[in-house]
Amino acid sequence: MDKFKSIMRILAWVVVIGLPLYFLVATWGTKFGLVSLKFGFGKMVYGWGAKVMIGSAVIGLIALIASVLKPRKGVLVAALALLIPVAALLYAGSIKKSAEGLPFIHDVSTDAVDPPMFTQAILSQRGEGTNPVNYVGKKDPRGKELVSVLQASGYPDIKSQTFSAPRSEVARAARDVLVSLYGHAENDDAGAGETLVQGTHMTFWFGFKDDVIIRVRDNGQGGSVVDMRSLSRVGGSDIGANAARIRKLQAALDKKVD
What we know:
This protein is of the alpha+beta class and 258 residues long. The protein has helices spanning 2-31, 37-47, 49-67, 75-100, 120-126, 147-154, 167-182, 241-257; strands spanning 107-109, 161-163, 186-191, 194-202, 209-218, 224-232.
């Protein structure tokens, strides 16, 4: 029995140290190019993640039961070995539940009829294998419904903004917002009465890149109309990230202009 308890303590330490390390390799390894997206996200997280967490929880439970038998030893590490994977499973379950109630899309625009279109400055960075940049007529990755229809149903609050301030002022504020959030911005005077400001957001964990464009147009009365679009480079569903990003940008622009 003592030998079994000793083995379980060792395995508990493997879970406590190894499980967080496993997901750090999957997330930051992908972000910094140590492993491919297909392996880090596709295999380590999406393919094997649940199995690794369940297996770790089983080890933690057995280790906890063994640790409370006399003589008691290693209760804390065994409890952590159970708590960590259970917490991870609950977190993964909450993400899955949230995703089920959101549109299965990765492209969100405040103007579904005439969406802002990315210029070569961004298109040249996207590369092959990325999600298509067209919006009008685009269907969800499952090929069932129009993205515009799903967006209108799931995110009815995503609308154009209007400002009484002139286009030059609003465009300058939009650029400042993108620079403050993403560290850079691309300006493009698209023509008379229109200015485009573009940037790219990189997620903290996997380093997923989502391209953002803000279009500022004269409204014909001395003010401005602002439309935004956020498009993920890879992936099927963004789990609401692009809509949330537009809301954040709109709130920041409101504050900046006012």
